[in-house]
Amino acid sequence: MTATGAAIVADNLRKTFGEVVAVDHISLEVPRGSVLGMLGVNGAGKTTMVRMLATVLKPDSGRAMVHGFDVVEHPQAVRRSIGLAGQSAAVDENLTGRENLVLVGRLTHLSKSTARQRADALLDQFGLADAGNRPVRTYSGGMRRRLDLGAALVAHPPVLFLDEPTTGLDPASRLDLWGVIETLVADGTTVLLTTQYLEEADRLADNIVVVDKGLIAAEGSAKQLKDRLGDTVIEFEFATSSVASSAAVALGSSVAAATIVRVVMSNGSVTLRDALNLLAAAEIVPSHVALREPTLDDVFLTLTHSSPIGGAAGATA
């Protein structure tokens, strides 16, 4: 299996845990120097996919190549080629930030002097230079996430796996981390990013795959995915969630979230008139109506028939 210009290739990967199918014959390619955003709710299979590509889990079937190495046949070569930042910061709380980075450098066979130089450079890059000699237990959550990402970059990996890297960060810290990721990609790093923040995928990803129940539900750029839905989204707001649920039934192919019901169609004027007629027939009156262009949020909700995921946290299967 080869792919010209691809840093990550998955071919028909499958992984089960007992009766649960976590990843069901997924295939994908990530060109070198690009970002693939993987979207999905908790349990969709995103983290399992990352763990197989990073050699943490062995696939039941299928094949994968990372930086030209087979993940099953040459796992050590894959590990030397990647950086991995998981959903929670994997740093030692009792060591200082600098000591954590130096330790990672030594474990990846850097000399003492090179490891120290690399630690200093990363602390400066991630805005942690002033806190470098403090124990990590005194760091905020955002500082720990930045240190964790720094640890994944100690060995200058050409491929970086980021599993929900900004979960739990405040908006300012999230923006800072996005800037770091964009700089890495501009320098040639390939990134596979799993996220539950739709705006994160919209901003960072060159290509997006939406994963639902272990399968790829859709793939394309953010624009391509939005274009699939049509030109107009009609958003109805109702007084209560129960009224919204009744409205969703009356409107048919719509997506309900709390008190909001969304209808996506290509002919806005006809859609709005017809939708209002359907609601009137059901004796349901919306408190607010708005028309707008589709967003990535609409794409996700339509494909997975789920509630909005932006801001959700927690482990992913």
What does this entry look like structurally?
This protein has 317 residues and is α/β, with parallel strands linked by helices. It has 2 domains: 6-221, P-loop containing nucleotide triphosphate hydrolases (Rossmann fold); 230-293, Alpha-Beta Plaits. The protein is 37% helix and 26% strand. It is built from 11 helices and 14 strands. The chain has helices spanning 46-53, 75-81, 97-107, 112-125, 141-152, 171-186, 198-204, 222-228, 241-251, 268-281, 296-304; strands at residues 6-17, 20-31, 35-39, 61-66, 69-70, 82-85, 159-163, 190-195, 207-212, 215-220, 232-237, 255-257, 260-265, 288-292. The protein has a 6-stranded mixed sheet with strand order 6-7-8-3-9-10, with helices on both faces. Helix 3 (97-107) packs across helix 4 (112-125) and helix 3 packs parallel to helix 5. The protein is elongated and about 75 Å long. The relative contact order is 0.15. Mean pLDDT is 86; it is low at 307-317.
Key structural traits:
317 residues, alpha/beta, Rossmann fold, Alpha-Beta Plaits, 2 domains, 6-stranded mixed β-sheet, 4-stranded antiparallel β-sheet, 26% strand, elongated, disordered C terminus
